[in-house]
Amino acid sequence: MADGPVAELLLLRLQNNHDRLDSLELATALGVEHQAVVGAVKSLQALGEVIKAELHSSKYWELTAEGKEIVEEGSHEARVFWSIPPEGLAQSELMKLASGKVGFSKAMSNKWIRVDKTAPGGPRIFRTVETVEDTVKEKLQLAHQGKADSLDEKEKNELKKRKLLAEVTLKTYWVSKGSAFSTNITKQETDLTPEMIASGAWRDMKFKAYNFAALGVMPECGHLHPLMKVRTQFRQIFLEMGFTEMPTNNFIESSFWNFDALFQPQQHPARDQHDTFFLQDPAEATDFPMDYLERVKQTHAQGGYGSQGYKYNWKIEEARKNLLRTHTTAVSARMLYRLAQQEQFSPAKYFSIDRVFRNETLDATHLAEFHQIEGVVADYGLTLGDLMGVLKEFFTKLGITQLRFKPAYNPYTEPSMEVFSYHQGLKKWVEVGNSGVFRPEMLLPMGLPEGVSVIAWGLSLERPTMIKYGINNIRELVGHKVKLQMVYDSPLCRLDS
Fold first, then answer.
1. Alpha helices for 265-377 (secondary structure H)
2. CA distance 233 to 469
3. 3-class DSSP string for 227-277
4. Which of 162, 178, 194 is the last residue of a domain?
5. pLDDT at 360 over 90
6. Separation between Cα atoms, residue 328 and residue 248, nearest integer Å
7. Which of 279, 284, 445, 491 can bridge 295 by disulfide, Cβ–Cβ 3.0-4.6 Å?
8. pLDDT tens digits for range 41-85
9. CATH number for the domain harbouring residue 321
10. Whole-number pLDDT of residue 405
11. What does the entry list under GO cellular component (predicted)?
12. What does residue 173 show for φ and ψ, rounded to 5 degrees?
């Protein structure tokens, strides 16, 4: 039966020749809360045309708790008046009475009492009339007896202003039989389950109608994603420092730009399928600047530009393989090559913030993608000192001031440095990025002039977020509703778990 015994009793009363029921009268007759009857009406309405329910609203005046007290004991001003003896009462004593403060003000306004400030021992209160009529009590008694309509609007509003009387809106239902009226109602199903479909039982069941016009609960407020907040801060910092944002909308790269152009040998472990997502369709890239490709091949296989190279048989088949980029340094390589094609070299500063992908085993600290941040500066005579100075300025603007640098190895930077910051939550130094000076074997084949140096650094968006927000570990970052995209052992984005 729908919604318990109240609904059953309502249906039974309608069946016994009742043309219409008032929900408030029914609640009184059954000795239950009116809201229980309203709930039963709404439950029966959801079953279809079992009943008809017409909503009616009416207003009435109701005494507040303070108003009921006045009906019993009199108004505050009357109580103050009758508490004053013929010889008067010290004001300090009057104010100790329960009705003293409010009653004194109202009695003074009615000119029932006066204050003698020159009396010995301090101000003293005296009556100014022999007797008073407690009209406030009388008006509230009328409202209590259901005769509030006998009061004019000004009187009711005055009592309402004093919070002695309240206007209440009462909503009731007039309930009558519907076209499908029955006292034997079966609860309608709300879910279609696989078991119902498998057994065919759904054919004999009645399902509750779906309300396609119903609106979901609106969220109380919105929140900026912590990663997106930090990303916006990074971008603003780069722009303030005069950097130009690189186009990073190509998630798919060829192995040539992702590895070979960076002087990373074709036998490097990072180029294995266990670390990289290779594409099947299209499996290979075909469009390369062939003169530049030949110089890269020569540098890998036989050396050049003061380097002996790697001394192996470089294969263009490996360079053609398409993949999901493993770092945004592939974009930096493209931008530096474009810079080298200018008739006259001009210094440049580039940055990028975008997704990269790794074929990782998923766990609490690693996903198959993360956001990499990269900064590149190209100019004549740049040194490791310039790199350290730029890094200090960059991280200081982010709010990370405790930095340490540690020598490291990367295939395409020499010298190289890992960057550490002190984590207040973990109470230890945490790696936040990697950096270095691009090798001549990478830059000179592009056509950049002798003497031009390129300093670069990279980090993951997720790790500085942890540092900035004082988050202790990855699971706590999940608790901040941050989608984690972390990975480890990237030449420019190393993230040890």
1. 290-301, 316-320, 329-340
2. 13
3. HHHHHHHHHHHHHHCCCEECCCCCCEEEHHHHCHHHCCCCCCHHHCCCCCC
4. 162
5. no
6. 7
7. 445
8. 888 887 777 888 888 888 878 899 998 999 999 999 999 999 999
9. 3.30.930.10
10. 93
11. cytoplasm; phenylalanine-tRNA ligase complex
12. -115, 135
Domain co-membership, 92 together with 231: no
Distances (CA, A) of 374 to 337, 394, 460: 17, 12, 9
**Tokens 């039982």 found at:** 201
Distance separating alpha carbons of residues 267 and 259, to the nearest angstrom: 11
Per-residue pLDDT tens for 96-110?
A: 988 888 899 999 999
The DSSP output letter for 411 is: T
Residue-number span of the structural domain to which 465 is assigned = 227-489
Between 144 and 3, where is the model more confident?
144
- CA 434 to CA 441: how far, in whole Å? 20
On whether both 247 and 152 belong to a single domain, the answer is: no
Q: Which two tokens stand for residue 213?
A: 């016009």
What pLDDT, on a 0 to 100 scale, did the predictor assign at position 463?
A: 63
Nearest to 387 by CA among 455, 317, 305: 455
Q: What is the model's pLDDT at position 492?
A: 34
Burial (0-12, 13-18, 19+ Cβ within 10 Å), 445: buried
Contacts of 74 (CB under 8 A, 6+ apart): 82, 134, 137
Q: Are strands 113-116 and 89-90 parallel, antiparallel or unpaired?
A: unpaired
- Say how many domains are in the chain: 2
Q: Residues 399-455: pLDDT tens digits?
A: 888 899 999 988 889 999 999 988 887 788 888 889 999 999 999 999 999 989 999
In this prediction, residues 190-210 reach a mean pLDDT of 86
Going by C-alpha positions, the residue among 174, 144, 156, 162 that lies closest to residue 75 is: 162
| Tokens 């498998």 -> residue | 198
